[in-house]
Amino acid sequence: MTRRSVAVLATLAAALAAAVLPGPAASAQDIEPPRGVKVVPTGHANGQATVHWQAATYGDGSLYLVYHDRRPGQWWFAGSTTGWEYLVTGHNAGAAGLCYRVQRLWNGRTSNVSAHGCGSAWGPQQLAPPDPLTVASLGPDRLYVSWRRPEPNDGSAYEVHRYQPDNLRYVRVAQLGDVYSTHVAGLNRGEEYCFRVVRIRNGIRSPWSPSGCGVPVG
């Protein structure tokens, strides 16, 4: 085991040992903390939410510690991940006001704790995601992305995001009104591209659709 691995595990063990925190302790050593923390309803089970954040850099081996504000002024350790989102469960269906913060560990150093982000958990009134997602070729440089119209049709809007393997992130490529397909151009022939879609109505965002992939040909 490397010295870096030992340092990371030691810091994580300390966080786990402190089940209830008066506030996540931070010993910032010039590494940037996570930014833009958001909590959104997700999944197909009541009480689930996903905590998202923006990383300073991607793919650098950072470990992220996630904290939950279960009581005013007390941040509880919820879990850790090497990714940039974390699924939380066990909340009441549709619960609102769920607040989380995230801290970054890298190369034996610890960042400040992020600003908190708040949101709600999945509940009976949440939107179902677009499903299924179909991706088909429209020529050597474009793909056709489509999904099933919801029943009843309720005027939802949609965002289409494309996966970028260079930085391991999905980025938005289309923001649509009450339509159920879009063309994505400027692609490379023979390369595979993957997409996912989120449904939006009255400020509520659905969970992400299952991803769909396709290859421009022709």
Mean pLDDT: 83
The ordered string of helix (H) and strand (E) elements is: HEEEEEEEEEEEEEEEEE
Q: Distance N terminus to C terminus? A: 50 Å
Number of separate helices: 1
What's the number of extended β-strand segments? 17
Shape: flat
Structural class call reads mainly beta
Query: What share of residues are in beta strands?
Result: 35-45%
Largest sheet: 6 strands, antiparallel
Poorly predicted regions: 4-10, 13-28
Residues in helix, %: under 10%
| Radius of gyration using CA atoms only | 20 Å
Please outline the helices and strands.
Elements: H1 3-17, E1 20-21, E2 35-41, E3 49-54, E4 63-71, E5 74-81, E6 85-88, E7 98-106, E8 109-113, E9 117-119, E10 133-137, E11 143-147, E12 157-164, E13 169-176, E14 181-184, E15 193-201, E16 204-205, E17 212-214
Antiparallel strand pairs: 1-5, 2-3, 3-6, 4-5, 4-7, 7-8, 7-9, 10-11, 11-14, 12-13, 12-15, 15-16, 15-17
Gist?
7% of the residues lie in helices and 44% in strands.
Describe the structure.
With 218 residues, the chain is mostly beta strands. It contains one helix and 17 strands. Strands 1, 4, 5, 7, 8 and 9 form a six-stranded antiparallel beta sheet that branches. Strands 12, 13, 15, 16 and 17 form a five-stranded antiparallel beta sheet that branches. The protein starts with a helix and ends with a strand.
Overview features:
218 residues; mainly beta; six-stranded antiparallel sheet; five-stranded antiparallel sheet; 1 helix; flat
